Amino acid sequence: MTSANAGLAHDIAIVGGGAAGVLVAIQLLRQARKPLRIALLEPQPVLAQGVAYATPYPEHVLNVPAQKMSALPDQPDDFLDFVAADDADERARLAPAFLERRRYGDYLRARLAEAMVTSTATLEHVQQSVVTLHRHAGRLHLGLQDGSSLECARVVLAVGNRPRPLPARGASSLAPGALTGAWDFEAVRAIPQDASLCIVGSGLSMVDAVLSFVATGHRGRIQVLSRHGWWPQPHAAAAKLDFDAGQLMSLGLRARLRVLRRAARKAMAAGQPWQALMETLRPHGQALWASLSAADQRRFLRHLVRLWDVHRHRIASDVHARMQTLIDSGQLRVHRGRLDAVMQSGRCVRVAAVTRAGKELHFDVDHVINATGVELRVPTMRNALLTQMLGDGLLQPGPHGIGVATVGDGQVLDAHGQVQDDVVALGSLRVGDLWESTAIPELRGQAEHAARVLLA
Ligand SMILES: Cc1cc2nc3c(=O)[nH]c(=O)nc-3n(C[C@H](O)[C@H](O)[C@H](O)COP(=O)(O)OP(=O)(O)OC[C@H]3O[C@@H](n4cnc5c(N)ncnc54)[C@H](O)[C@@H]3O)c2cc1C
């Protein structure tokens, strides 16, 4: 699939071959009714991995049950078809299960290969990063990492997730190997079993790292540090709740919280877990965001986002139980504090943090793991293409400075607010506009709509 023909003109170029880029490619191939040349630009040799599905390790599982992970909006059981085929018992067993993430990459690649066989369109994987985009004579010109260029009529931006740099003084002067990114799955696995660790961040990436340590039989102490000290809540089997999410849309943030707290208490009094309420809200995430005033969106981002995250982005209950066992045994401790500095001190790293009450915390550890998550602000994403487009006015930051500004089906707004019908974004770049915009249930719908716009 890899192409050396980057110089030839293409109809559509997809920048980024993680899950989102591959979902768009599948939709374009399925929806095309005439010959079409599509380029999928992704520097990695294997498509459909990105960050989430690149892990080769079985301990890293999906945080969404298999029955909700179809890549195709019109075939909701498609992922189950892939993992269990016609075996009814296996389907029933796997539907609510949290499967290994690496299987999801296999699934997307299989569906891409099938779509390529039957489509009137052709797809080439150009194994390059895109570093610039310019308009010239009504065409779009992509500058590639190796100095070559690719010309096309339309572009999809599916550049996905970038890790946030460690927010601490001294991070750049640590000894090589002392600081590891949580998404560097192999490096995390290679940390010696007796090493003492500080994981900065307490969300899903922290859980991934801890699961790797459990898998390697890690014996050293693990300190987890985050501003709030909350970590992801467990999923729980729950029946559908009789709750009308529509009643929230006209309310401000505070009033919504009151209604939700009441509804959660009522559900629990009736023997339902609070998770049932979150599941009921899940399909309304984008509408809930859009119906908040700009001031309430800001308040949410400033004061509530972490609380929301640990309830919304939950983990399998057995994973939660494993985490709790480590906490109960004293091997893992979660601290609440703001990271201030990291300093190399001989072979150790001294981590300095400050609690809300102003108390200083210090840990001397062998390794620091950066699990602070995804960078949402384009100017600090360190993505050459986005930096150039922002600088040249081809896009503007999204609401509250996160993601990029888009309309409708992802058409990007330039610096003057003009809609660019030939540049479409999806996934985490749309987080400011849509909020819920990174998980597969959203990406598959965005991909279908983006393909429709691009083929119109
Ligand atoms: C650790 C983790 C676990 C997750 N688990 C789940 C889950 O279980 N279920 C779920 O629904 N969601 C999950 N998510 C959400 C996840 O964000 C999406 O499912 C999905 O992986 C996002 O895909 P993406 O293509 O938008 O981004 P990415 O996976 O980040 O892929 C973007 C791709 O674009 C490429 N790229 C970037 N810039 C350029 C450029 N300039 N030129 C060319 N290529 C470029 C990168 O190399 C990368 O391959 C998880 C996320 C993370 C981080």
Automatic annotation (TrEMBL):
InterPro entries, alphabetized: FAD/NAD-bd_sf, HpyO/CreE_NAD-binding, L-asp_N-monooxygenase_NS-form
Bilayer-spanning residue ranges: 12-29
Residues in FAD-dependent urate hydroxylase HpyO/Asp monooxygenase CreE-like FAD/NAD(P)-binding domain copies: 13-161
Short name of any one Pfam family annotated for the protein: NAD_binding_9
Keyword annotations from UniProtKB, A to Z: Membrane, Transmembrane, Transmembrane helix
Keyword Transmembrane: yes
Keyword Transmembrane helix: yes
SUPFAM superfamilies in alphabetical order: FAD/NAD(P)-binding domain (SSF51905)
Protein name listed in UniProt: Uncharacterized NAD(P)/FAD-binding protein YdhS
